Amino acid sequence: MIDSTTNVVVLAADRGPGDPIAVNAGVPGKVLVKIAGKSMLTRVMEAVSAFAAHGRLFVVCREDPAYADAADVGCEFERVDPASGPAASAVAAMDRIDPSEPVLLVTGDHPLLQPAWLEQFVTEAAASGADAVVGLVDHAAIVGRFPDNRRTRYRFSDVSVCGTNLFYFAGLRGREVVEQWRVFETHRKKPWKIVGRLGPWNLLRYLAGRLSLSAAMDALSRRMRLRLASVMLDAPEAAVDVDSQADLELVTGLIERRERVRS
């Protein structure tokens, strides 16, 4: 169990009115698409509200009744206007939080999210002592569970991993990572460009398959003059957010099966 309270920021701003997933569903934004009767944002908020150690809760979204209704699962939250991009939006929300307090960042297009994943991630992230922590899943586990689903893959010498859209910032120094995140977000689908931030030698090692995950984290920590770490989550589903129609169909099937089992 987590000993301290962690504030939570949910990034629920959408890519714009032309998002094909939202257009196909006839809703104002992707996170409002319903799966088995509940929007993606509602499902994320339910998981976050059940997370045992959450403190203040912030939702970055448009000022629109549809978003307010989707986010309302019976717990208090503060709405934050979206900024120019995810990093800027995260900064806008975190500016309202005491810099000494930890923050968990999640996204509103992750409807499979489970409280148990948040418990594991935040517990291990806090124990790492790092300024900022990213949640990862072993790519081999994802392929074994979802052989036809494509996810952005980072290949290291010891393991290939995929992101989970879970981030932990321990305090003031962690906020510096968010500020620098703006550089990374334009290359989020191009792993080699992100790894290139580690310097030319480490980029060559990565391209040659000779850079380990821990070495990459150490190099990035030195480059940013902060302590960064990663947490490997047990559930391969933690890497499946909704970026495409294929993702939506996969997630819909998983949720429908999950809810049939519960009933």
Distance between the termini: 28 Å
Morphology: globular
CATH architecture: Alpha-Beta Complex
CATH superfamily: Spore Coat Polysaccharide Biosynthesis Protein SpsA, Chain A
CATH topology: Spore Coat Polysaccharide Biosynthesis Protein SpsA, Chain A
Low-confidence stretches: none
Counting H and I runs of at least 4 residues, what is the number of helices? 11
Would you mind describing this structure in some detail?
This protein has 263 residues and is α/β, with parallel strands linked by helices. It has one domain (6-258): Spore Coat Polysaccharide Biosynthesis Protein SpsA, Chain A, CATH 3.90.550.10. Helices cover 42% and strands 19% of the residues. It has helices at 20-25, 40-50, 65-71, 86-94, 115-128, 139-145, 172-185, 191-195, 200-207, 213-224, 245-262, and strands spanning 6-11, 34-35, 38-39, 54-60, 78-80, 103-107, 132-138, 154-155, 160-169, 228-232. Strands 1, 4, 5, 6, 7, 8, 9 and 10 form an 8-stranded mixed β-sheet that branches. Helix 4 (86-94) packs antiparallel against helix 7. The longest helix is centred in the C-terminal third of the chain and has 18 residues, at 245-262. The chain is globular. The relative contact order is 0.16. The mean pLDDT is 88.
